[in-house]
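To close the chapter, one final illustration. This time we ask the reader to focus less on the individual chains and more on the assembly as a whole: which components sit near each other, and how the overall shape emerges from the parts.
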Amino acid sequence: MAYRTTALRIDRDQALRTRILACALQRVASGGFTALTMQALAEDVGIATGSLYRHFRSKGELAAEVFSLASQREVDALGEILRGPGEPLERLQLGLQRFAERAWHSRQLAFALIAEPVEPEVDERRLRYREAYAALFAELLEAGNRLGQFQVAQVNLIAACLVGAIAEALVGPLSPQARAAREAGQPALSLSQVSQSLITFCLRAVGAPLPQKEEPQP
Amino acid sequence: MAYRTTALRIDRDQALRTRILACALQRVASGGFTALTMQALAEDVGIATGSLYRHFRSKGELAAEVFSLASQREVDALGEILRGPGEPLERLQLGLQRFAERAWHSRQLAFALIAEPVEPEVDERRLRYREAYAALFAELLEAGNRLGQFQVAQVNLIAACLVGAIAEALVGPLSPQARAAREAGQPALSLSQVSQSLITFCLRAVGAPLPQKEEPQP
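The assembled structure is written out below.
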């Protein structure tokens, strides 16, 4: 009996932890990491703030877990494309396009993941996830090099450059300032402008041929 | 007399603040932001920890000031080259090379500025300084576009891509892990490999012709 009681408690604890993380992700997706306070979250979940601290020792630890949960989804989604069917060149284009689309459709969350100022625990995870993205690009660059589609000497370094370029390209368009400007009726870049420019930038950077129709006009 | 006493006190306060920041920068340059604790810093400066808090309300505020002090120097150094004499194409190459060199020669500081996990106040400044770098690149891209040296459609977006690529290219080589690997005798990229790859990446990305000798071999 003691064993079954313990197993049951562990299951319940795990279920509650999963529910806390889901509520926390919801908060970050709608208001960024600033909206993730222990008190508001405890209310969302319907538990006491003290119980929340039994699952996550600090706001930083919780934020880091939410970050990983959301980032892993993005890495998986990108990985499916970059490691999927098709030539490396097509996979790179499609991967960039989908990554920008996903960010565009959850702007607040994407900005939170990429650039929102936040606890050092999250910065730590950012470094780790950027390495995970870079590993996917490195694999793709190797494949493209072998086929002569890309001309990249230092694969790992250039994979990191791609990750940095993609993240930084999105920071501006996703930022709260851009949102305010858009809402004030000021001109803003469209998703297709951003994704097109990013694709052109990355293809050129790795020495890939540009699709004819996408030749940019300065 | 009251006026002179007050003026004297302000001067002294300002001098002490400057000295605190100089000591703090020294700490970050040799041990990163983790080495910047209020207590250790107060000892370096030779004042009580309480006095330190009269100048900087928190570790985050102090770290942000140190960050800005060091970053402004980098922005100024890069700006001198990017806005200096020569063709835009040459200025871009030289700017990238010098930026990488400066980082290489103060690795710990460069890693701290670019990527060390740290208080949100510093993340906030990182965003601002990345905009300052991007503004310099945007100006250069405009100039290069006009001369037909670069082929960039969305100047501001691509300027941000360059900033992201440069920062991310350096994170790996400057990281504490890379240092540990180097010290353990594992193979590591040299400054010239990093700076050459970065130059090739950026020149191609903006549609600039590559110098013949620098054509990369996959």
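Chain A is about 75% helix and 0% strand. Chain A touches chain B through 51 residues (CB under 8 Å). With these observations in hand, you are ready for the problems at the end of the chapter.
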